Amino acid sequence: MALALLLGGCAWGRSDAARSLPADRDASLVYVALGDSTVEGVGASSPAASYVGRLHARLRRVYPNARLVNLGVAGATSADVRAGQLERAIALRPHLATLSIGPNDVTGRVPVETYEDNVGVILGRLARETRAVLVVNLLPDLAVTPRFRGSPARDALGRRTLEFNRALGRAARALGVEPVDLYGPSREELPRRPELVWSDGYHPSDAGYARWAELLWAGVEARIAAR
């Protein structure tokens, strides 16, 4: 699960930058979303209000035949994505794949080395076995969420989030993918904008998912090939 609300800049490494979405606006584009509860849309009032649903809606404005396959499962860890979502994603031959995973690894005390290996395999296989544009985000600062803000474990959780972000960054950049930064913006904006958080104090609200989709779209839009 994650409070992946805010997306900062969206830069891309050289090898991933070689990929683009189709120039043919009538293409049957396939968008596959992998990850945890934020991918499934926990906290959203409907699937369409999640960041994945909103991103799909934006894609359909450009590609009317764009199809979404949402593989996200609440509670998923990186190991769950590797074992239960990755093969299905590859088989779908996506044009666009997004990955948001990690907070359950952080709170579940998964070793950071295990997380880095799992993410490396997930992104590596997607890069080698598909032609998808790959989008992955760093984790937000879980310590600033209402659920953990007053917890005795807050400081330790904050340190682990940083460690996991470094691991995710290493795995992604090894493939030429520059992760979207959620960490810095979450620390800056979340304390000032409580409406971005659902009633559980952890997951995004509709407003949070809208913010995420809005900023993520800037990176996806840059990958749409000219006609």
What is the element layout, followed by pairings?
Elements: H1 14-17, E1 30-35, H2 37-40, H3 51-62, E2 67-70, H4 78-84, H5 86-91, E3 96-100, H6 103-107, H7 112-129, E4 133-136, H8 146-149, H9 154-173, H10 183-189, H11 206-221
Parallel strand pairs: 1-2, 1-3, 3-4
Helix pairs in contact: 3-11, 4-7, 7-9
- Beta-sheet strand percentage? 5-15%
The structural class is alpha/beta
Low-confidence sequence ranges: 1-14
Average pLDDT confidence is: 90
Tally of discrete structural domains? 1
Which second-level CATH architecture applies? Answer: 3-Layer(aba) Sandwich
- As a percent range, the share of helical residues equals 40-55%
Give me the side-by-side strand order of the main sheet.
2-1-3-4
CATH superfamily: SGNH hydrolase
Number of helices: 11
Shape: globular
Question: How many β-strands, per DSSP?
Answer: 4
Give a short summary of the structure.
It is built from eleven helices and four strands; from the N terminus they run H-E-H-H-E-H-H-E-H-H-E-H-H-H-H. It has helices spanning 14-17, 37-40, 51-62, 78-84, 86-91, 103-107, 112-129, 146-149, 154-173, 183-189, 206-221; strands spanning 30-35, 67-70, 96-100, 133-136. The longest helix has 20 residues, at 154-173.
Q: How would you explain this protein's 3D organization?
A:
The chain is an alpha/beta fold and 227 residues long. It has a single domain (14-221), classed as Rossmann fold (3-Layer(aba) Sandwich). Helix content is 45%, strand content 8%. The protein is built from eleven helices and four strands, in the order αβααβααβααβαααα. Strands 2-1-3-4 form a four-stranded parallel beta sheet, sandwiched between helices. Helix 3 (51-62) crosses helix 11 (206-221) and helix 4 (78-84) packs parallel to helix 7. The chain starts with 13 loop residues before the first helix and ends in a 6-residue tail after the last helix. The model is unreliable at 1-14 (pLDDT under 50).
